[in-house]
Amino acid sequence: MNGERDLVLHKPTVVPEMPSALSNLHNRLRSGICASAQHGELRIMVFPTYVDAHGRPRIKKSLTTWDLANAVGLHHLRELTAREGVGLEAAFDRPDLPPVDLDDPQHEKPLQHALLFPAADDETPVIAFVRFRIVPVLRHIGWLSSDDD
After folding, report:
1. What are the E-state strand segments in the chain?
2. What is the DSSP string of 86-123?
3. What's the predicted TM-score (pTM) here?
């Protein structure tokens, strides 16, 4: 009713034995999808996951663009933003924020990033959710190497 949609990872009733970081991921790391300032465009916040010392998945909200590229993978960010109508920007329009440029990622000021995509695009938010939320946990528990796509 408020115009938002969510992507949520749900836990099935029966799951096999798995590392706690992965089993703790269910229904914990939702990603809200909301309208952007442009008509016909939506956005999803780019908050990558990390696993804390207790094996709980957490999110990092503010990163420099360079830190974001290192956390997610610069080539994965470029793949996402190469999709038609998709862009990466600062989540909030403030004059003191540096530009978000994947050709020259800044490493001076942390900020919140948002991925913008056409409202008719159902694939981009799912790909982003997997890249930003699920893949880092799979890498942490060793189910994906850092070289895996």
Report:
1. 5-7, 31-35, 41-46, 49-51, 57-59, 87-90, 113-118
2. -EEEESS--TTSPP--TTS---S--B-EEEEEETT-SH
3. 0.80
Contacts of 68 (CB under 8 A, 6+ apart): 46, 48, 77, 105, 113
Q: How far apart (Å, rounded) are the C-alpha atoms in residues 118 and 111?
A: 23
Provide block-wise average pLDDT over 10 residues at a time, the chain (149 residues).
Answer: 58 65 64 87 92 85 95 93 96 90 95 96 92 86 70
Q: Which residues contact 26 (CB under 8 A, 6 or more apart)?
A: 9, 10, 11
